[in-house]
Amino acid sequence: MKSSSRNLIIGGVVLVGALSFVYSTIPMHRAGHQNAPYFGSTTSIGLVDQSLRELNWGNIAFNAPATMRYAQPQLVELLLSPALSVADLQARLQQGVSAVSAHVRISNRMEAQVAGRGFTIQALTPDLQAVTSQAITRWKWEVTPTEQGPQTLHFALSAYIDVAGRDVPLVVRTFDREIQVEITLPQLVSGFVQKNWQWLWAAIVVPIAGYYWKHRKKRRAQPTGSAPKETAEAEGHRLG
What we know:
By secondary structure, the chain is of the alpha+beta class. Helices cover 36% and strands 35% of the residues. The chain is built from six helices and ten strands; from the N terminus they run H-H-E-E-E-H-E-E-E-E-E-E-E-H-H-H.
């Protein structure tokens, strides 16, 4: 009996030790932490956090105007540098009015994009560019308003980072620029005509053309050389 009890106790101790070992290797299911996520350095989020901490800092200047003219293209620029100050970058903008600046995280490859529903936007430089401390990284767009009134221009700057061997973008800064698009009277009239030419043709041009054609046809039907009746009677009275 004593031997059986001793074996039973030893077996229980071994079983408890084995269960404790298995339990300790599963941190997500420890008591009181069933719903707590684990953000260790080996997880994808931990890798992103590590890459973010390794990013350098730089300055940007972005010249989004407060007002624009309808259908008139305008140059929009973004300058980035890890070495120059915000004031230096603003001084190097070709059109420095209403410039927006910021201190942002940067990597050796950055991507800048501009979008807006009320605009036609043509990129004049590549969206994705390499960054160096020896020169200014410059993005340019030709922005043409296609709608009048208040419009919004959206800007996004992304840093490319390495995550588990993959090159992925990380948005580091966004701007929303409110722009008032103005329109001149000639542009307003021209736009109205272009949008309503079919109605104008039916309501104005066709009746005028019909009246002109009817009047011309009536004149052509009159005999050549004959004077109108009223003119002939007046001439007879004058001779008499």
